[in-house]
Amino acid sequence: MSDLSDIIDGAVTTLENNVDGLKGYNYLPNQIHQFPAAVIQIEPIDLEIAFSGNTIEGVLRVTVFFGSGDMSEAFIAMYDGLDPTETNKSIVAALRADPTLNSSVDSSDPQAAENIGRREGIDAIYAGFDILVPFIKTIA
């Protein structure tokens, strides 16, 4: 497995271990049936900077989806997911609780939330947001 795959898998594990009922994906699934759900992907990277020397630097995009049924409940769950004080519900708190992303990086820190609100998925409409998580990893 590549270092990037390990980092994405580490983020999935961190979220699944710290957010009640969350299903994490290291790929973009065709359908999502369990909520909340998080899809972890790597942002575009400058290869010269990202893989220079003995470190890998990059940014993960954590796209989070909340139920497609009752939208008012989905929005309440979405706000809980953004609020770093919501124990076992907050995506932000989960990422901050384990900045090593299950020992896959040296450090990471959620920096920004984007695209907050109504989201159109492949198969339904959701409430959701994206969290950008810069990371650094030392390699041998």
Q: How many structural domains in the coordinates?
A: 1
Main beta-sheet annotation: 6 strands, mixed
Given the helix and strand composition, which structural class is it? alpha+beta
So, the CATH homologous superfamily? Phage minor tail protein U
SSE order: HEEHEHHEEE
CATH architecture descriptor: 2-Layer Sandwich
CATH class: Alpha Beta
- Poorly predicted sequence stretches spanning 5 or more consecutive residues: none
What is the CA-based Rg, rounded? 15 Å
Mean pLDDT: 90
Strand content: 25-35%
DSSP helix fraction: 25-40%
Q: Give me the number of helical elements.
A: 4
β-strand number: 6
Gross morphology is globular
Topology:
Blueprint: H1 3-18, E1 23-25, E2 37-42, H2 47-50, E3 55-66, H3 71-82, H4 91-97, E4 107-108, E5 112-120, E6 125-138
